[in-house]
Amino acid sequence: MKLSIKDIQQAHERIAPYIHRTPVLESRALNKIIGCELFFKAENLQKIGAFKARGGCNAVFSMDEASLQKGVITHSSGNHGAALAWAAALRGAPCTVVMPENAPVVKIAAVEGYGANIVLCEPTMAAREAMVAKLVTEQGSTLVHPFDNDIIIAGQGTAAIEMLDQVEGSLDIMIAPIGGGGLLAGTAIATKALAKNTQVIGAEPAQANDAWLGFNSGTRLPEFSPNTICDGLRATVGVRNFEIITQQVDDILLCSEERVVEAMRLIWTRLKVICEPSCAVPLAIIMDQPEQFQGKRVGIILTGGNIDLDNLPW
Amino acid sequence: MKLSIKDIQQAHERIAPYIHRTPVLESRALNKIIGCELFFKAENLQKIGAFKARGGCNAVFSMDEASLQKGVITHSSGNHGAALAWAAALRGAPCTVVMPENAPVVKIAAVEGYGANIVLCEPTMAAREAMVAKLVTEQGSTLVHPFDNDIIIAGQGTAAIEMLDQVEGSLDIMIAPIGGGGLLAGTAIATKALAKNTQVIGAEPAQANDAWLGFNSGTRLPEFSPNTICDGLRATVGVRNFEIITQQVDDILLCSEERVVEAMRLIWTRLKVICEPSCAVPLAIIMDQPEQFQGKRVGIILTGGNIDLDNLPW
Q1: Whole-angstrom distance, CA of residue A201 vs CA of residue A199
Q2: Which residue of chain A has the CA closest to B307?
Q3: Which one, of B40, B42, B26, B37, lies nearest residue B297 by Cα?
Q4: Consecutive sets of 10 residues in chain B, 314 residues long: mean pLDDT of each?
Q5: Distance CA B171, CA B26 (A)
Q6: pLDDT digits (tens, 9 = 90+) for A80-107
């Protein structure tokens, strides 16, 4: 069945009591530097420090009691794991998170802090999926895939619903990063339904450009080895996500690693909020390709703020 | 004439079109660590990155056109200077800021960025005041004192008005840092008028405890040499401020420098916002004296987020 705006609106009703309605931040000084009017939906101020709380909450609160008691399981480079652990704890359900060995310490600690059981594995998508399959068989728990999953996509799309309601006037462009594509797919469905003249753009680091390659060739890359500072965007875009993105997203743009660090620092100094590298990719793209954004009103979803303060990239 | 809640309410009407109504942030994880229910009024997300935008804006927008054209002048370790420069620019008025030589580079750059003329001086209150007096005589400009000034106190008090409106239910305690005392004096008047059962507490680093010494002896210290990481709290409490604080504030509490850094890091990691050391003093005090705050609902004004990212204290 096709995922629609109604699913996202239902998800929003379901999760609204548990999540923050995060603010939309603006900075006139930053607008002057960048040359367009920027609106930042601050999901780094969301529960667990990332938009992933939305999807995780939607998944857990859509489950029946009997399935919940057998537990939920997922694999995640970090934020989805924390989100699922947090949401499971809200309903008193057991939760297991399979994490790549190279996940940031701060993200592993966060998942532990929400009371989940952590299993480390090799940092490849294949290893993550194999470990999860094994544990699902052993535990009888329910897999909540971090992105290739309609219930997660619907949850992530709720950030765009809120943002379109919070910004006065229309947006010319809505831009969100792509890791597995859950956020971008949900954002595209919500935006195209509620603001049909707003262009939707996906943001990807050039060194993790699997979605860009697939979008431009018409065929999804099933496996890919990214090499980017953006630890939240190392996943390969999902099947379901790729389908929605090719149908509803207007374009995918790329940026350099250096620009990500520069954009991240600008967000810290001008918006006064902590963001992780992945979160700075949309702004980096605007800085790398200013002519496409000049004078436009641009909505950016700031995805998360979970970063190790002892390992800053400057 | 006695400063009252009406002056603060008028200030709020005057400045509301120009400032951000900043969000009140909460973190359940942080509440669990600290052991009370904390509400953070995020003035680090305010225009110019600090609550001082409120006072500066109130001062400039209270002036007549003729005085404005001769310009405004002030001395400031940073945020008030940026606030006055920003507000003066909104009305097209010239602005001069006298700054101590040891002010953070990032704060000097901010004042320059708003188009003000900067004059550096020795880092003592006496040197700052002497330089300003000389320039006022030469320029005919209007001195907008950073804190010892009713129009500034009224402006700073508007943050508390908003916060009391934004938090559902009552607060047991409202706590704000003391540098010159503008924020604490305004906060005390607003809080005592609108929420008479809420205790008002001033927060000071033990190594800049001039207000605490004055509060407990009944006599303001006219001069003092602080030695604290909290560059925003190095000013000596003002005459007008001391008068209001001794009348309306319930207590002043102290904290160690080490605890300030620890509290600052907690704010960064748990609330995902950038704050400067001064801004972390209320939380540091709660951590240093937990028994006084246990289980209470506490409002904290996060004062500012202007910090040099290349000189972090960890």
Answers
A1: 6
A2: A269
A3: B37
A4: 94 98 94 97 96 98 96 89 96 95 84 93 88 94 95 98 97 97 98 98 96 96 89 91 98 98 97 97 97 97 93 90
A5: 14
A6: 999 999 999 999 999 999 998 888 787 7
Are the beta carbons of B272 and A44 separated by less than 8 Å?
Answer: yes
CB-CB neighbors (< 8 A) of B305 in chain A: 272
How far apart are the C-alpha atoms of B297 and A232, rounded to whole Å?
Answer: 35
The domains of chain A are located at: 5-50+151-302, 53-149
A→B contacts (Cβ < 8 Å), by residue, are 23, 25, 29, 44-45, 47, 49, 106, 113, 265, 268-269, 271-275, 305, 309-310, 312, 314
**What pLDDT shows up at residue B71?**
96
CATH code: domain A5-50+151-302 is 3.40.50.1100
The predicted model scores a pTM of 0.92
Which phi-psi region, left, alpha or beta, contains residue A196 (left: φ > 0; alpha: ψ -120 to 50)? alpha
Q: Which residues of B touch A43 (CB under 8 A)?
A: none
> What is the architecture, at CATH level 2, of domain B53-149?
3-Layer(aba) Sandwich (3.40)
Partner residue facing B272 (CB), from A29, A273, A314: A273
Cβ(A314)–Cβ(A54) below 8 Å: no
Q: From residue B37, how far is each of A21, A299, B28, B160, B174 by CA, in Å?
A: 19, 33, 8, 17, 12
In this prediction the ipTM stands at 0.89
Asked if the domains A5-50+151-302 and A53-149 are classified in one and the same CATH topology, the answer is yes
